[in-house]
């Protein structure tokens, strides 16, 4: 989960205090960011935005609830407090991998390693 500026004006205000050319030397990073900037939370997988939330001021706290469901198990929600403007990495294991798929992958990699050793 990350946050993006809500408007072009918010984006320009943030860009005006950010060092030119990216992240370079940490001493060039701003020591404070105006709290009036408005941020929109986004949940992404790679570059794809899956969900967005309501706009909020930078630094405000929101609650993020992640409730994975596992076959044959009770559902256990995980609740996190997230500060607007921060990043939250979320990891999930989507499903089980069959034993046959694991063995096939191992065989394929062993074959690749053997062929690489023959060169």
Overview of this structure, please?
The chain is built from two helices and six strands. With about 120 residues, it is α+β, with helices and mostly antiparallel strands. The chain has one domain (about 1-115). The strands form two sheets. Strands 1, 2, 3 and 4 form a four-stranded antiparallel β-sheet that branches. It has a two-stranded antiparallel ribbon with strand order 5-6. It is flat, with a radius of gyration of 22 Å.
Q: Could you name the key traits of this structure?
A:
119 residues, alpha+beta, 4-stranded antiparallel sheet, two-stranded antiparallel ribbon, 6 strands, 26% strand, flat
Overall average residue pLDDT? 81
**Runs with pLDDT <50, length 5+?**
none
How many domains?
1
- Provide the β-strand percentage band: 25-35%
Number of helices: 2
Principal-axes geometry comes out as: flat
Backbone structural class = alpha+beta
Largest sheet: 4 strands, antiparallel
Quick rundown:
The chain is of the alpha+beta class and 119 residues long. Helices cover 24% and strands 26% of the residues.
List the helices and strands and how they pair.
Elements: E1 2-5, H1 8-17, E2 38-45, E3 48-52, E4 56-57, E5 61-66, E6 78-83, H2 99-117
Antiparallel strand pairs: 1-2, 2-3, 2-4, 5-6
């Amino acid at each position: 989960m990350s946050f993006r500026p809500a408007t072009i004006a918010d984006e320009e205000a943030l860009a005006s205090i950010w060092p030119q050319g990216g992240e370079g030397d940490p001493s060039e990073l701003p020591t404070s960011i105006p709290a009036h900037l408005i941020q929109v939370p986004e949940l992404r997988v790679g570059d794809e935005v899956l969900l967005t939330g309501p706009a909020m001021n930078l630094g405000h706290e929101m609650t993020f609830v992640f409730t994975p469901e596992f076959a044959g198990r009770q559902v256990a929600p995980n609740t996190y407090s997230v500060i607007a403007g921060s990043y939250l990495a979320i990891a999930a294991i989507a499903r089980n991998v069959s034993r046959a798929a694991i063995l096939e992958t191992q065989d394929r990699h062993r074959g690749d390693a053997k062929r690489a050793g023959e060169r």
